Amino acid sequence: MKRFSFSLQLLLGLAAGVALGFAARIWDVAWLTETLTRVGQIFVQLLKLAVPPLVFTAVLVSVANLSNVSGAARLATKTLLWFLGTAAVAVAIAIGIGLLVDPGRGVTIDTGAAKAVDTEGAGTWLDFVTGILPTNVVTAFTEVNVLQIVFLGAVLGAAALAVGEPARPFLDLARSVLELVQKALWWVIRLAPIGTAGLIGKAVSTYGWDLLAPLAKFSVAVYAGCFVVLLAVYPALLAFWGKVNPVTFYRNAWPAIELAFVSRSSVGTLPLTQRVTVERNGVDRDYASFAVPFGATTKMDGCASVYPALAAIFVAQVFGVPLGVGDYLLIAFVSVVGSAATAGLTGATVMLTLTLSTLGLPLEGVGLLLAIDPILDMIRTATNVAGQMVVPVLVARSEGRLDVATFNAPPRPLDGARAATPRAPEPATA
Fold it and tell me: Is residue 265 within 8 Å of 48, Cβ to Cβ?
């Protein structure tokens, strides 16, 4: 397989999975469906196994690394503002599409049979805020509560910054653990072509087109909203603000976007996202070590902006609840401010619950959409990860921390060992 690039291997896995999935569905080959399901499950389990140590050490080290970056406060502020700004644009697009297509009109679903899902204390803003604070450090890791792990990592990273030299051994240990976890996770990512075949094959074999029939308009609206963000908003920002070629960016970023699509995990894709951002898109390594992990846990234009906005409109229309201008503004506010609720894993459900509860809409609406969630989560996660790479490029370009020569060079292969630190960045012209 070394003769094929990693991107091509992923595409081959995707094609093989679709073919096997349709074969299993058309000829009702139960053992093939089971095999595809098991292969996909094992791949996802391996990704999730690394989540607690990866998130904790990545956030801790990214916060601590700000001490190595000149103008760290300015960079962090710029990054956060870009996160919020692009989220606002994404949710505005989603609301516009929702008003245009009315995704819930004419949908015939038995709402009486719908049941509210267990949202694990994420139903209200108070639940969300209190849920961030762990009551037990060990439980946060054993139950894989990503928000609490992010909180612990950020607090300890800030504390290490404040303590200074005495904290150096602890930070060295955290960096070593991060390197080990990323290396092990990279080995798992190398299995992505096989995992892709299993995940896509299982989806095709299990769902086909039957499940999408009653929710086709909503599904198309979600994909359309994400594609507008991916193919219009991000390219416009890269071209006009970043002064870089959007086609080159997507050529460089494609492996991470593709892996995000099939794995449905921003956190699981984090090591590949980091490598692509530094080694192909030329973002300064010190800044990227903060921005990329930060984005993997908070920057979710697909899960936190496009999806909850369209889903809220859908649920309101299905249950016959009229929405006014104030409600749409509230949807936008929740999507922008509450984006940290996504945390790179099952965040779309948490974010939708938060949005519905804020609007006073039935939480049973979450249950109506769970069946097709895996299908929608693929494009949502791909959109998330693309945004997590776009913003560091924009900020690095404006701060003179983008190596334009690396950005424009032929993509470096991602199969081998990590490349050396990029050359000194070219001064920004924008």
Answer: yes
| CA atoms in the 13 A half-sphere facing the CB of 248 | 19
Alpha carbons 180 and 183: distance in angstroms, whole number = 5
pLDDT digits (tens, 9 = 90+) for 162-207: 898 899 999 999 999 988 988 888 888 888 889 888 888 887 887 6
CA dihedral (165, 167, 172, 174) in degrees, to 10, reads -150
| Main-chain phi, psi angles of 110, to 5 degrees | -75, 90
For 60-87, write each residue's pLDDT tens digit: 887 887 776 667 788 888 998 999 999 9
Cβ atoms 38, 197 nearer than 8 A: no
Run of H or E including 246: helix 246-263
Task: Please name the residues in contact with 136: beta carbons below 8 A apart, sequence gap of 6 or more.
Answer: none
Q: Model pTM? A: 0.81
Distance, CA of 90 to CA of 301 (rounded, Å):
6
Pick from 53, 76, 52, 54: nearest CA to 63? 76
